[in-house]
Structures are given as structure tokens and as C-alpha cells.
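Progress report, Aim 2. The chain analyzed during this reporting quarter is listed below.
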Amino acid sequence: MRIWSLHPAHLDRAALVACWRETLLAQAVLAGRTKGYTRHPQLERFRAQAEPLASVGAYLSSVADEADARGYRFDRGRIITPRSPVEVIPVTDGQLMLEWQHLGAKLTQRSPADAVRWRATTPTAHPLFTVVPGPVELWERAV
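Predicted C-alpha cells for the chain:
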């Protein structure tokens, strides 16, 4: 499961679709609708919020916004708590850079045109997150 800290605009089609699908799974876990993935480390930052379902709903809403901008049709009806006001979640610049490099490696392999676009930009965070100084997050298992 990869719930990107990066802004959805940075993701290629495959990563955007996978992010939507995997975050819907995270939402199901947080809602108690599935027994799988309950201990997945990517969920820690959502569980730490006062309203975990609202936070994941805000995350999904921004992913759906990016899908709309690209002409894709993601079913917003699947978001349990869409567009609720939530606190932004801190993410470290170390985490953002790790994900940026991870995305770049994936794009180089599967989407050369997107890799060119990736090299010409700098990373920005998903609207739910605010970047703070620090190392890779403790919940990250990709290192």
C-alpha cells in the first residue's frame, strides 16, 4: 500500500489509479469494514488524527480532483466522509524526498514521458499535508 505524500499531480496514470484504490482500502480499514491491512504502517498518520475517516476522505477528495482534471472518472460516492474540514497533517521533507525518488524510479521504468516531466519539476505535497523539516517518517518501510 502506498498512500503518497506527494501531490497527486506528480503521479502518472498508473500511480494515480493505484493511489485511489489503495486509499479506498485504507478507508475501509479505518471504517472497520475489512480485517486485512489493519496494521499497515501507512495508516498510522491517519489514525493519529482526531477524525481519521474525515482525514482519509479529504485525501481521497484531492486524488479525485486530480482524476477529474485529467478526464478520469473516479466514483466520489465511495468516499465515506468527503470534504470534511480537517487539520493538515505534517510530513517530513525527508519523507517527501524519499517518495519523490521512489516515484522517479518507477516513472523511468514504466512511463518515460512522465519521467521527463518528473525531472523538470520539484516535489510538492498532497494538499492534506504540510511539509516540516525531518528525516524519513518512522512508519515508512520502503527504506
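Residues 41 and 103 are 19 Å apart (CA to CA). The chain has one domain: 8-132. These observations will guide the mutagenesis work planned for the next reporting period.
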